[in-house]
Amino acid sequence: MKIIQESDNLYRLTRFGMVNCFLVEHDGVCTLIDTNLPGSANSILQSTRKLNLPIKRILLTHAHFDHVASLDPLVALLPGVEIAIGAREARFLAGDFSLAENEYGKKLFGFMRAQTRPTRLLNDGDQIGPFLAISSPGHTPGHFAYFDVRDSTLIAGDAFTTQKGLLVAGVFQWTFPFPALFSWNAELSAKSGAKLHTANPRRLCVGHGRTLLSPGAAMDQAITQAFQQHPAASTR
């Protein structure tokens, strides 16, 4: 697992050059955002020991396997750690993959049930540590992003990707179809991209790809593309 220091208090942990989770330092401890692929627990803990940053809390952006697969092993090694996830997404973590009557989108896939139960369920606008929790559904029904109010860093999960330029979840490109293939509702994704843009982040961190500094113009272009592909998003 490669460690990339993004700022004085932010570290990106990357496996295979394409799957990210993040360590954020605050008050001498750290929050881990997402848990990466299966088999990542020991590498994550080795990274925290190198950085001398014990994990106090684990925040989850959503319950896809590449974000929660190492949750149970980490919790087993971190007694008392706080676990937080969006209230809607927590149902997937518990193995309930049903949709509500007002939810529509593609067939759900890619989720992974965990034995761990959250210690806190988040709603839009909740403050948790230095983070503002922002509901950003679309990639999944209960996706959340986390905004560090100290330095305006947005950790956006899979609401955006940067592997082939900045793309909103749900946008299709022939040369890079994955943001569309793995997203549940492209119209909601476009709306959530626009919502996250209003946070005016100075730094944009994503689950797949490199971190962007001063991402405003790139976000604006990506959101325009998303609404062009999915014009119904502007009317729902």
**What would CATH call the architecture?**
4-Layer Sandwich
How are the strands ordered across the major sheet?
Answer: 1-2-3-4-5-6-7
Distance between the termini: 42 Å
- Counting helices, strands and paired strands, the structural category is alpha/beta
Helix fraction bin:
10-25%
CATH first level: which class? Alpha Beta
* Unreliable parts: none
Assess the beta-strand content as a share of residues.
25-35%
What is the ordering of alpha helices and beta strands?
EEEEHEHHEHEEEEEEEHHEEH
Biggest sheet overview: 7 strands, mixed
Q: Tally of extended strands? A: 15
Number of H- or I-type helical stretches: 7
Instruction: Calculate the mean pLDDT score and round it.
Output: 96
- Kindly identify the CATH topology: Metallo-beta-lactamase, Chain A
**How many domains is the backbone divided into?**
1
Name of the CATH superfamily: Ribonuclease Z/Hydroxyacylglutathione hydrolase-like
Shape: globular
Radius of gyration: 16 Å
